Amino acid sequence: MAQTLVVIGHGMVGHRLLEALAERDALAGPAARPGAGWQVTVLAEERRPAYDRVHLSAAFTGATAADLALGEPDFLERHGIDLRLGDPARSIDTAARTVTSASGAVLAYDALVLATGSHPFVPPIDGADAEGCFTYRTLDDVEALTAYAAADHVRSGVVIGGGLLGLEAAGALRTLGLATHVVEFAPRLMPLQVDDGGSAALRATIESMGVAVHTGVGAAGVQVHADGRAQALRLTSGEEIGADVVVFSAGVRPRDRLARACGLAVGDRGGVVVDAHCRTSDPYVYAVGECAQTADGKVYGLVAPGYQMAEAVADALAGPGELTFTGADTSTKLKLMGADVASFGDPFAPEGRNGAVSLVFSDAREGVYKKLLLGPDGALLGGILVGDAQAYGSLKPHAGRQLPAPPEAFLLPVGEGTPPPGADALPDDAMVCSCHNVTKSHVRAAVAAEALTDIGGIKKCTKAGSGCGGCVGTLQAVLDAELAAAGIEKPRGLCEHFALTRADIYGKVHAERIRSFSELLEAYGEGGEGCAVCKPVVANVLGTLAPDLGLGHILDGEQASLQDSNDLFLANLQKDGSYSVVPRVAGGEITAEQVIALGEVARDYGLYTKITGAQRIGLYGVRREQLPDIWRRLGGAGFESGQAYGKSLRAVKCCVGARFCRFGQGDSIQLAIDLELRYRGLRTPHKFKGGVSGCLRECAEARGKDIGVIATANGWNLYVCGNGGATPRHADLLAADLTTAELFALVDRFLMYYIRTGERLERTAAWIERLEGGLAHLREVLIEDSLGICGELEAQMERHVAAYQDEWQAVLEDPAALERFAEVDLSTTGLRTVDFGGTALAAAAHTSTGTAAGTVIATGACPGASPGPGTGAGTGVGPDGDTGRVTPGAVLEPGRGRSAVLPDGRQAALFKDRVGTVYAVGNRDPFSGADVIADGIMGSRDGAPVVTSPMHKQVFDLRTGICLDDPEVSLPVIDVP
User: Fold this and answer.
1) Which residues, at least 6 apart from 813, have a Cβ–Cβ distance to it below 8 Å?
2) CA nearest 248: which of 222, 223, 268, 211?
3) In sequence order, what are the residues at sequence separation of 6 or more whose Cβ sits closer than 8 angstroms to the Cβ of residue 769?
4) CATH number of 823-974
5) pLDDT tens, 356-366?
6) Distance in angstroms (rounded) separating the CA atoms of residues 791 and 782
7) Sites in the chain below the pLDDT cut of 70
8) CA distance 482 to 462
9) What pLDDT is attached to residue 869?
10) How much is the pLDDT for 321?
């Protein structure tokens, strides 16, 4: 029979215990052996499963419970874990070994784990229970505080506590648009993490953001309005601070009530006493995390020690119980209100004691303070980094060791002194992730064993980087070093045809005024025809530089053969081979007549209609040949292309702002319209999106966009490089309180600089992480004009705006462009089907210029047909019984595919390369079942002619039809002369 484990608490540490048990195959889930492992019940006080409390403040800027959720969605079900949300434990009977929950359920246990965490300390002052007083520990706290702050009367707030959580709470109040104060009883901010010098740098940074800081003073009481609401905080100094919101963040206390009530040993200052195996005074009961007083007599308030305790308990429950917990690294690295703060080792040892000496670098102008404490033998004892914590990943693993380079290399700004050493200097036993006890050797072994190439793979295999996240930079450095050592460093070039990056190609085209792919391939190519990687990149660059190069429409001439299917047909390809039509609706503003026009088109063509997440209306299920007619009707109703298909601006989302909202501080609708109309049609390395919120309540979710604008009482705040995706990233504040003119000038520069330096399919979130210096570099280039290019960037944007044309309107006015949307119907030229041994062949008479009559286009080899000259040549019976041949290439453009309807309803995909050789294969994509192969990009791979399916990018050899990504799949080959 499986043993029964009851876990009280489902926070980060409680969930980590479950994962550690699962990793040891110690859970009696559906996949376990009968009778093996622990059957687990979890009693959780909160109504949500475990979530990431370390990044709780992200909930103030749009992160949801789902965004912060821990573990895989099916983890609990897969391991048979009974999670009872909102049903906390009420009592423990250690004699009977039972737990009684709030619902009255009585659960027997063979082992019990207390993971009850801590509760916030609220000082015993008058008015602490008034309306408007909050604690800051849970998502419920965040929701309650956010809702209260939205009230009209709430204008200001104060946080009691200047520690880690207190400053996070202050940042939250500021995000909510409140005038914010911080009160700290100690003489400095973050007294447990930084010294006086570090605190001074941190304070200067925070005060520069408009937050008032009061240190060396305590809270005496909350002054309460007659209606029961908080209205001010009285300080022990006699000062009074006006505050509609009071947040208590003055420390935490272990939640040990259950332990006390059932007679377990508890420390004098709180916390369930545990031994090195995290076992309490009862051998069947364990305690982990912030509720436990460990063998070294401490209560740890950080997630990393809690995770280590969870590992020790899992090892004890699963056997052999060799892991112990006798103390933990309390290093921390975090970003508070935009300021990097980190500490590691023992940075507070008095200088001179046992020969210890300190080295300090301080730059008050930049709010930077760095201190290293060294032992008499030069070993690193600890350190503090404020304002610039880039060296944290290199320094922390060396705590207690000799540094691999002079200490100055880690303190001085980049470019001054000796460069700091790389990941190679870290010893293999260096702890790179203290949250999960992962050493450098663990990471190296995982990279080699699993052929890992990215941080995501390292997180999945080792869990390193999935805790506090402070080690990600070190992990990336170790990964890069391992890949380079293995000789598999990613080449810089785009593909086999170009040893240039996208940024390189942009520079060459811009500087040398290269006007075509062929010209670029001739000058800088490595041979071949190009491919589905380089062709769209060059098309994108040419599209961006079209105003400077004097180029026309993106489908003019050779440009058409470079485009991916979406840009080729100016519509978004869907999974069934149909397309979507998404007209521009700038700012979400649309007339009743336009809504009616969209409805009529959808009705007449039988289309699915959906309001998109970007405040537009999408029509789905459009056949390619219907696109021109639909756009004629939409153009007549005043619509233009919304470019939902391109690597360009999608839309600028907005709230109703000052026009309608009682909280609005700016006209977000008009600004969103102006932004969208200015940057429409601009080709960029990847798609980008915008958002404008009329106030700090952020209803448009602007900080999740590549360009986010938020109105303030003093103008506009500009945020950049926020994205969704696999790893969502909130945007960073680039500049504050801008006028509208200043805002547009800065966005002009930002986008043009991104276009110049971004790589293929690189969203702005990844781009800023890759840029050396990140946000600071952007400010130097775009605001301080350190490169002297701001005027040039703005002028280039002005040329783009002046040259803008609606792409669909241009197509409708160009008969040659319209012809590309039609299929080649070979049946109108006498095409007929002839059966040779069961293989259907299509025979046609064709009288185009330069061709002969009597082509055979076959869906397989031609039995009995004699070979003729040229690739795939064949002969067959013509409509008059004569043997002859025809060249269908007369209707093809080099590098472009065309679909041809056969008499039996099937389709062929025809291609012609640059020297005139024609290839034909079946048009149906074998992976999706959609007739789309003709819309793919023709190119070459290792010298072979290929086509890349536009659906899922599989590559097919046009000579054999074989899929080069999956040789068991192929396209039918059609013989042509």
Assistant:
1) none
2) 222
3) none
4) 2.102.10.10
5) 888 888 877 67
6) 10
7) 1, 31-36, 61-63, 335-338, 351-354, 365, 413-424, 456, 466-470, 488-491, 724-728, 823-891, 902-904, 976-977
8) 16
9) 27
10) 83
**Between the CA atoms of 41, 44, 47 and 52, what dihedral angle is there, to the nearest 10 degrees?**
-100
**pLDDT score at 891:** 62
β 179-184/156-160 pair status: parallel
Residue among 687, 690, 684, 680 at smallest CA distance from 652:
690
The domain made up of 122-250 has a fold known as FAD/NAD(P)-binding domain (3.50.50)
Cβ-count burial of 605 within 10 angstroms (0-12 exposed, 13-18 middle, 19+ buried)? middle
Six token digits for residue 867: 């070979």
The half-sphere exposure of 71 on its side-chain side, counting CA atoms within 13 A, is: 23
**DSSP secondary structure letters along 236-249:** TTS-EEE-SEEEE-
Distance in angstroms (rounded) separating the CA atoms of residues 696 and 710:
6
- Report which of 21, 68, 67 is spatially closest to residue 42, judged by C-alpha positions: 21
Tell me the DSSP string of 866-929. PP-SSTT---EE-TTS-EE---GGGG--TT-EEEEE-TTS-EEEEEE-TT--EEEEESB-TTT-
Contact criterion met (CB below 8 Å) for 757 and 502: no
Residue 165 three-state SS? helix
Asked if omega into 320 is within 30° of 0 (cis), the reply is yes
Q: Where are the alpha helices (DSSP H) in 95-213?
A: 139-149, 164-175, 196-208
Tell me if the pTM is above 0.70.
Answer: no
Domain boundaries, the chain: 3-119+254-318, 122-250, 427-490, 502-563, 573-641, 645-805, 823-974
User: Cα 789 from chain centroid?
Assistant: 29
Which tokens belong to 404? Answer: 């691999």
Q: How far apart are CA 951 and CA 933, in angstroms?
A: 8
Domain 645-805 architecture: 2-Layer Sandwich (3.30)
Same topology, domains 3-119+254-318 and 122-250? Answer is yes
* pLDDT tens string 892-907: 788 888 888 766 677 8
Contacts 24+ apart (CB under 8 A), 814-823: 814/553, 817/553, 817/555, 817/556, 818/628, 820/555, 820/560, 820/568, 820/896, 821/569, 821/624, 821/625, 821/627, 821/628, 822/625, 823/625, 823/898, 823/899, 823/900, 823/901, 823/907
Q: Judge contact between 544 and 755, C-beta under 8 A.
A: yes
DSSP assignment of 777-843: HHHHHHTS-TTS-HHHHHHHHHHHHHH---HHHHHHT-HHHHHTTS-EEGGGGT-EEEEETTEEEEE
Q: Are 396 and 331 in contact (CB under 8 A)?
A: yes
**Phi, psi at 8, each rounded to 5°:** -100, 105
CA dist., res. 757 & res. 755, Å (int):
6
Q: Please give the pLDDT value at position 426.
A: 75
Instruction: Identify the helix (H) or strand (E) that includes residue 622.
Output: strand 617-622
pLDDT recorded at residue 104: 96
With contact defined as beta carbons under 8 Å apart, do 441 and 428 qualify? yes
Q: Tokens 């204008």: give the residue.
A: 155
Whole-angstrom CA distances from 370 to 11, 426, 785 are 34, 21, 28
- Is residue 905 packed enough to be buried (19+ CB in 10 Å), middle (13-18) or exposed (0-12)? exposed
